[in-house]
Each structure stands twice: as C-alpha cells, then as structure tokens.
Specification:
single chain; mainly beta; Jelly Rolls; five-stranded antiparallel β-sheet
C-alpha cells in the first residue's frame, strides 16, 4: 500500500485578525467617549451606520477630515484616525459599529 505525505497549509493571520482576536472590541450603538488608555485603533461598521460625532484623542474631527459627514457607511467598512491616532468620541446616530482595541 502506497503512502502519501499530507501537507497542511497554515494561513498567517493578518494584523487586523490579530487585533480582533487578541485585544477585543466593544459594540457602540450610541455615544461613547474612550480614553487614550482604551487604545481604540479603529472602527468597523457592524450595521450600516451614520455618525453625529467621531473624533480622535487630539479632538480632530474624523468626519470632516475624511469627508464622511452625513454619509451612511456600509457594513464592513473600517474607519481610522490619521497618522495612527486613536479614537476618542464615537457617536453613532444610526446603525452600530465595533470599536477595535489596538
């Protein structure tokens, strides 16, 4: 009887997958203010969402910087602050998002 070598392929996890699996997340459906110690690296849209306010820890308006004011963001979209900044205020006026801890 012949034998056959079976090779298993291991998929490397992406940075995003590692962050999701190791640092946690919080579902946001309203208005939440995070501290710098929370280290919210980015937002993932869980259900189509619009925002009333979205700022980074330096109080920069991410909606203005990214031309997202009044825009409905689709499920799965990822939003981050410029230059590796961390999120501060997340005010979801419709839908829900996940705040991903970095």
């Amino acid at each position: 009887m012949a034998t056959q070598d079976v090779k298993y392929q291991h998929k490397k996890m992406t940075t995003t997958e590692l962050q999701l699996s190791r640092n946690g997340q919080k579902c946001v459906t309203g208005d939440v203010t995070f501290t710098a110690n929370d280290k919210v690296a980015y937002i993932v849209v869980n259900a189509d969402a619009t925002f009333s306010n979205l700022t980074d820890q330096a109080d920069n308006n991410i909606l203005t910087e990214s031309a997202l004011g009044g825009v409905t963001l689709s499920t799965g979209m990822i939003i981050s602050a410029k230059n590796g900044g961390l999120m501060k205020r997340v005010n979801v006026s419709s839908g829900s998002v996940l705040a991903i801890f970095g």
